[in-house]
Design a protein that fits this description.
By secondary structure, this protein is α/β, with parallel strands linked by helices. It has helices at residues 105-109, 117-125, 148-151, 153-163, 181-189, 204-210, 217-229, 250-260, 275-287, 292-301, 321-337, and strands at residues 53-57, 63-65, 75-77, 80-81, 110-114, 135-137, 168-172, 193-198, 234-241, 264-269. Helix 2 packs parallel to helix 4 (153-163).
Length: 364
């Protein structure tokens, strides 16, 4: 399927406070580069707001395998490509270049919904050689982003996993996860599910600028409480930690999340792969010019002089004195608060493969 062409680059003032990225540079694989050339007779204020365009596609496969040594899961599902939450720091943004689109505004406005995800999942789970391992959802783009209210792809995937008694670990920034409590609670009783909420900041203004269409910090903490009350194993991710911007909040985030019922915790240092680096630098200069030099200096201090280091083992936590300090602060807080030292194991022995098309019911 041919992907739509990327939008022309959009100036900083367009969609401010509504979208995360401030520009829309052409994808890195494109032969031509597009840019916005404003002029006096075309005021930026007259430009219409960017609308979200959802393209429904039929994927060829749905379970993605992972062999990265510093990631805790072996397989994952991404119901959507692109994410309307618009988190400016999202490390998944560069994947839009494979569609001929921009990692900037295209990533959060030109979305793809995998409408056949549930049927593909049934087929792949029923394969004779399938080996049961926890499936992670939300590790790339958020399965509960706003379009899920209408598309319901995540809901359909979860229904398949529930019927098959398959273990699943969910990561999200959205309180929409509470819609599926009717599926999650029974799965939790069987030891089949855990949910992590990413809480980047408790500052609603910073959250609005940095993650414009994600649930507010208060709603995420509320979701943690509702999930915990439903006896669903719940974690908090203080991610990403941005030196000089939200690192001061590590202890406060963990305090609030533990009080809400989270019993596991994790963190990730800000990652700036490929196009994300320039998008974040542009955003930082526009919204926090007074902190611009300090944040970038601290980032380099936590990455051995670089803004990003993709090496396994250090890409999530950084290296050097500043990164070490962040790690020790996090460890001290989780120990003081009594977060679990290890993650909740999920059961694999209850798995029942979906019945393959044409297969007869077994008598015994």
């Amino acid at each position: 399927m041919a992907a739509p062409a990327p939008s022309a680059a959009v100036p900083v003032t367009r969609g401010k406070g509504i979208r995360g990225a401030l520009s829309n540079a052409s994808g890195r694989f494109e032969k031509t580069t597009r840019c916005y050339d404003g002029d006096d007779w075309d005021p930026l204020e007259d430009l219409p707001p960017l609308r979200t365009l959802v393209t429904r596609e039929r994927a060829k496969t749905i379970i993605t395998r992972n062999e990265s040594p510093d990631i805790s899961f072996d397989q994952s599902i991404n119901p959507y490509r692109g994410c309307e939450h618009g988190c400016v720091y999202c490390f998944a943004r560069p994947t839009h270049a494979y569609l001929g689109l921009s990692a900037g505004l295209d990533f959060e406005t030109r979305l793809f919904s995998k409408t056949n995800a549930a049927s593909l999942l049934e087929r792949e789970l029923s394969a004779p050689d399938y080996v049961v391992k926890t499936i992670a959802i939300g590790t790339n783009t958020d399965p509960y982003q706003p379009i899920e209210r209408k598309e319901r792809v995540m809901r359909q995937v979860l229904e398949v996993l529930a019927r098959a008694n398959h273990p699943v670990a969910i990561v999200t920034k959205s309180a929409l996860v509470l819609r599926d409590l009717d599926l999650l609670a029974p799965m939790a009783e069987k030891g089949l599910v855990k949910v992590a909420l990413s809480v980047t900041t408790l500052d609603s203004i910073l959250a609005r600028r940095m993650e414009p269409r994600a649930s507010s910090p208060g709603r995420r903490l509320g979701a943690i409480q509702h999930l915990a009350d439903a006896k669903i194993p719940t974690a908090v991710l203080a991610a990403p930690i941005i030196p000089g911007l939200n690192d001061i909040e590590i202890e406060a985030i963990l305090n609030r999340a533990h009080a809400a019922g989270a019993r596991e915790a994790g963190y990730v240092l800000l990652r700036l792969p490929l196009e994300v680096r320039d998008l974040f630098i542009e955003w930082l200069g526009a919204h926090y010019p007074d902190k611009f030099k300090r944040v970038l200096s601290l980032m380099r201090g936590a990455r051995e002089g670089k803004l990003y280091d993709a090496r396994f083992g250090s890409r999530m936590t950084g290296a050097g004195p500043y990164a070490w300090m962040i790690g020790r602060r996090f460890e001290a807080a989780v120990t003081r608060l009594g977060f679990a030292a290890t993650g909740t194991p999920l059961r694999k022995d209850l798995f029942v493969p979906p019945m393959r098309q044409g297969e007869q019911l077994k008598l015994f």
